[in-house]
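Q: What structure does this chain adopt?
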Amino acid sequence: MAEHFAKAVLLQQMHDDYTQLELLLEPLTPEQVTIPGVNGSWSIKDNLAHLTAWMDYAIQTVQAVHDHTSFTDPYANQEDDESNETLYQAWKDRPYTEIRQQFQTNFQSFVRGVESLSEEQINAVPPWASRPLALTIIGNSTEHFQEHRELIEKWLAQQTAK
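A:
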């Protein structure tokens, strides 16, 4: 039997991991966020843009479930690296302040979208998907925030040690 995800627990974890990431970003200077090398050539700004873009994807997915409409995955025929490069190119020239604001806005929209769903919808596999919606939600919030927060923390520790 597939794992069941409690809506309230999922929402709390989303908030917790978002808050941890926001607290990490808060004290950073404009210079710090644009230095490449956090992961590959990406800066903190690029990591945040990446998270923001993937949240937008998840928001669209959640909205389609809410509206009982179909969803066409724009990245279905791409490998992860190719999708990430497409998103990087789309966001790389935006200023950090714009990306940070969009990150915050997307998170609030994402939360509202998840709140609008029933627990049954969250745990169901949408007609166009191969896994429960909860895994898309987690993968584009909690797990993704943790992954990139850890990359940023490691990079910041290396910068401090220099």
